[in-house]
């Protein structure tokens, strides 16, 4: 079953994936806000034995990477909203969001203090974020080529 709006048919799974994109990006924004707003004492308390390593990592994380993190999540959220509005600009914004995500992960792999703060699985979340971001880009481009995004 497809919903026809204008000329291009919009399949039901477009709305399902669009909703999941929106949820993923809302969660990303929420995590960003928690990362930025959590007090040092709360971080130390919440993570017990790893708290000091996480606090050190947060303090060692460069401002340019934090800016890239902010841009990645908020542009991703805007892209997912525009995607659900069937706007082709969403395709470009998903690409921009992914580029900023890649930039913000540079210290995760190059800074020993940041890496230590993430523990042994420091690489897992960046890989998940990049894979989902790449899927958003590819799916949005496919929908654009099919005329679903206008």
Overall helicity: over 70%
Span between termini: 21 Å
Count of alpha and pi helical runs: 8
- Element string (H = helix, E = strand): EEHHHHHHHH
From the spread of the alpha carbons, the general shape counts as elongated
- What is the total tally of β strands? 2
Report on this structure:
This protein has 150 residues and is mostly helical. The protein has one domain (27-145). Helices cover 77% and strands 5% of the residues. The chain is built from eight helices and two strands; from the N terminus they run ββαααααααα. The chain has helices at 12-37, 40-46, 51-60, 63-84, 89-104, 106-110, 112-118, 124-145, and strands at residues 2-5, 8-11. It has a two-stranded antiparallel ribbon. A hairpin with a 2-residue loop joins β1 and β2 (8-11). α1 runs antiparallel to α4, α3 (51-60) runs antiparallel to α7 and α4 (63-84) packs antiparallel against α5. It is elongated, with a radius of gyration of 18 Å. The model has no long low-confidence stretch (mean pLDDT 93).
């Amino acid at each position: 079953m497809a919903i026809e709006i204008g000329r291009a048919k919009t399949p039901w799974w477009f709305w399902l994936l669009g909703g999941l994109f929106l949820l993923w990006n809302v969660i990303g924004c929420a995590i960003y806000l928690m990362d930025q707003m959590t007090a040092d004492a709360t971080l130390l308390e919440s993570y017990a034995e790893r708290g000091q390593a996480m606090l050190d990592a947060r303090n060692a994380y460069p401002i340019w990477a934090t800016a890239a993190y902010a841009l990645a999540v908020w542009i991703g959220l805007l892209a997912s909203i525009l995607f659900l509005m069937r706007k082709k600009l969403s395709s470009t914004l998903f690409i921009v969001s992914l580029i900023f995500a890649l930039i913000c992960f540079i210290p995760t792999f190059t800074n020993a203090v940041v890496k230590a703060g993430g523990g042994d699985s420091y690489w897992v979340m960046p890989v998940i974020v990049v894979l989902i971001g790449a899927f958003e880009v590819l799916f949005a481009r496919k929908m654009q080529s099919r005329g679903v995004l206008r």
